[in-house]
Amino acid sequence: MQDPDLIGIFVMPFERAGIPYLVSGSVATAIFGEPRNTLGVDLAVFPAPGQLPLVPSLFPESDFYLPPIEVMEIECRRPVRGHFNIIHHASGFKADIYPSKNHPHLPWALEHLKRVATPAGEISLAPPEYVILHKLEFFREGGQDKHLRDIAGVINQQDLDLGFLTQAVSRLHLTEEWQAALHLAMG
After folding, report:
1. Which of 40, 70, 138, 184 is the most exposed place for a label (fewest CB within 10 A)?
2. Residue ranges of the domains in the chain?
3. For 111-142, what is each residue's pLDDT tens digit?
């Protein structure tokens, strides 16, 4: 199980405030597959109108770096690739916040989200198939093998919807990356 500090520091404030989110990235793959150390958490966050101004009270300036609200608003309005960071001063832990609602498979992910108990409390986790899709995209963009290792761990630990994954991989033009992940998982 992932270090509960990342979840307690970054995820639980969104959970308690009722701001919709999904935990993804390496924290999700550590829960679904093979644990690995990480100093950050990826969160897809979807504040409803009026919720974004709550974020500075959830992450006070005395304890966190948070961009100005105007920057967060701009990032939330981006049609794709919206992004900002929250950094915890005392630990150096970081949350990568992705507010874009335009991923073609986000509606499926929200419909299939997983509620998971952690030492810090119950959280909303992106389904493993959605996490795999994002990891494949990150691998395609950066070529870092850690993404393939994370995916292989999930493949070996989860009962995946391979029909959905095959269709989504094709739609996102990730077939070569998917084959590399499958090869590593079977290897």
Report:
1. 70
2. 4-186
3. 999 999 999 999 999 999 999 999 999 999 99
DSSP string, the chain: ---HHHIIIIIHHHHHHT--EEEEHHHHHHHHS-----SEEEEEE-PPTTTGGGHHHHS-TTTEE---HHHHHHHHH-SS---EEEEETTT--EEEEE-----TTHHHHHHT-EEEEETTEEEEE--HHHHHHHHHHHHHHH--HHHHHHHHHHHHHS---HHHHHHHHHHTT-HHHHHHHHHHHH-
The span from the CA of 100 to the CA of 79, in Å, is: 6
CATH of domain 4-186: 3.30.460.40
